[in-house]
Automatic annotation (TrEMBL):
Pfam families: Bac_DNA_binding (PF00216). InterPro entries: Hist_DNA-bd, Histone-like_DNA-bd_CS, IHF-like_DNA-bd_dom_sf. Belongs to the bacterial histone-like protein family. The lineage of its organism: Bacteria, Pseudomonadati, Pseudomonadota, Betaproteobacteria, Nitrosomonadales. One of its GO terms (cellular component) is cytosol. The keyword DNA-binding applies. This is Histone family protein DNA-binding protein. GO terms for molecular function: DNA binding; structural constituent of chromatin. Keywords: DNA-binding. It comes from Sideroxydans lithotrophicus (strain ES-1).
Amino acid sequence: MNRSDLISKLAEQTPNLQAKDVELGVRVILDKLATTISKGNRVEIRGFGSFGLNYRKPRNGRNPKTGAKIEVAAKYHPRFKPGKALKEMPIQGEK
């Protein structure tokens, strides 16, 4: 599901709200989530999961095309850790 799919689903489920209001709400939530994480802070949504950053140390890598050794710089990588309720939720369509 992408952002536009999410907006259309939410607009269908909330007929008392206009689609542009739903779009604004989704955009504000996702923008705030992204800026908070980019500042190095953690975001936790109870029952769903938490978003944060993982630090990756610098390391030696290899160019797969040429085989030449390269140094990969240290970086922060965004991560999502699902909450307990999300982990225990049954997968629809699973037999």
